[in-house]
């Protein structure tokens, strides 16, 4: 008995073809997703990472580790100081054409084009970041401006669930660095005559500046998208910061970057950490000021408990 020839239904052929096409599409997605050098960034959502911390805490160290990989990018080693420096300026094209941070990221033509389709300082900032990421083929923009620590609430309002990397360091080392490096103008610098040169007044002014920033740290630590790290733990190797950031951000991270990129003692390409910065403050900071800082900000200090209650 002869078997009857089966005639395939054209509809079935179409279904089989669509299933094959779907299979190839999924294979392509998997390949692209895992092949990050080729185009993994295309599959990832653009986002921004803010590196915050009290000035002189080691934010540049973490920034250097992040911007030297294939997924992240930032504004060189310039700080935007967007909330503290740009926002107070007039909403005008000249504000951005004359700002070194934006002129480093974008050409004058790009700045003009972005300004025309923006309606505020914030929208310009967001559009500029998107343009820069798109042009460079990156998925994560890294923003490091220690003054932004004071604008934490504005940041989480203006950006949807931003990742925060909070860098902390020994308070005495930070205060001493603020005085020694002259990072910014201190209140003592405005005193008349020789009073501005009185050492202990400089340290008191630096302590007040430290306290102003320290008030914001407790809230930042509680934010669910905060990655908290200590400078001393990075330098001594107590934590594997590279592995931590790769796990939290899902992107490869550059090896440990030199902790003093602008110091004459260290070359920029020297990938070693300057351990002298951990205890170096003891040689240059007056012992009385060391004890005062410890009394105010040490976890075991009597005033720290009272201070932490005020910060809540």
Summarize it.
This protein is of the alpha/beta class. The protein is 53% helix and 8% strand.
What is the overall silhouette? globular
State Rg. 26 Å
How much of the sequence is in beta strands? 5-15%
What pattern of helices and strands is seen along the backbone? HHEHEHHHHHEHEHHEHHHHHH
The level of helicity is 40-55%
The spatial strand order of the largest sheet comes to 2-3-1-4-5
Q: Could you say which structural class the secondary elements and strand pairing correspond to?
A: alpha/beta
Largest sheet: 5 strands, parallel
Number of helices, where a helix is a run of at least 4 consecutive DSSP H or I residues: 17
* Cα separation of the termini: 90 Å
Strand tally? 5
| Overall pLDDT metric | 79
Poorly predicted sequence stretches spanning 5 or more consecutive residues: 1-7, 30-43
Overview of the molecule:
This protein is an alpha/beta fold and 312 residues long. The chain has a domain at 48-75 and 138-170 and 224-282. The protein has 17 helices and five strands. Helix 10 (171-181) packs across helix 11. The longest helix is centred in the first third of the chain and has 25 residues, at 10-34.
Write the layout of secondary structure elements.
Layout: H1 10-34, H2 36-39, E1 47-52, H3 59-67, E2 72-74, H4 82-86, H5 93-97, H6 100-105, H7 108-116, H8 121-136, E3 140-144, H9 152-158, E4 163-168, H10 171-181, H11 199-222, E5 226-230, H12 231-236, H13 241-249, H14 276-279, H15 281-284, H16 287-297, H17 302-311
Parallel strand pairs: 1-3, 1-4, 2-3, 4-5
């Amino acid at each position: 008995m002869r078997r009857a020839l089966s005639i395939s239904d054209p509809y079935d052929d179409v279904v089989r073809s669509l299933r094959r096409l779907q299979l190839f599409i999924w294979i392509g997605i998997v390949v692209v997703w895992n092949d990050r050098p080729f185009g993994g960034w295309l599959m990832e959502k653009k986002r921004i990472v803010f590196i915050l911390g009290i000035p002189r805490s080691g934010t540049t160290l973490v920034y250097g580790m992040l911007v030297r990989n294939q997924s992240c990018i930032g504004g060189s080693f310039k700080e935007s100081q967007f909330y503290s420096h740009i926002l107070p300026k007039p909403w005008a094209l000249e504000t951005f054409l004359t700002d070194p941070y934006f002129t480093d990221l974008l050409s004058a033509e790009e700045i003009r084009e972005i300004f025309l389709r923006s309606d505020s300082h914030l929208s310009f900032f967001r559009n500029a970041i998107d343009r820069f990421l798109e042009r460079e083929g990156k998925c994560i923009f890294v923003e490091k401006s220690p003054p932004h620590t004071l604008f934490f609430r504005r940041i989480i309002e203006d950006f949807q669930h931003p990742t925060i990397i909070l860098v902390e360091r020994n308070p005495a080392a930070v205060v001493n660095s603020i005085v020694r490096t002259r990072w910014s103008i201190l209140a003592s610098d405005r005193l008349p005559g020789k009073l501005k040169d009185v050492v202990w007044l400089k340290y008191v002014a630096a302590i007040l500046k430290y306290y102003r920033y320290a008030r914001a740290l407790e809230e930042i630590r509680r934010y669910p998208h905060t990655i908290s790290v200590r400078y001393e733990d990075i330098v001594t190797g107590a934590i594997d910061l590279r592995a931590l950031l790769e796990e939290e951000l899902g992107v490869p991270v550059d090896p440990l970057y030199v902790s003093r990129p602008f110091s004459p003692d260290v070359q920029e390409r020297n990938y070693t950490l300057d351990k002298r910065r951990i205890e170096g403050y003891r040689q240059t900071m007056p012992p009385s000021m060391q004890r005062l800082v410890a009394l105010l900000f040490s976890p075991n200090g009597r005033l720290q408990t009272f201070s932490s209650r005020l910060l809540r």
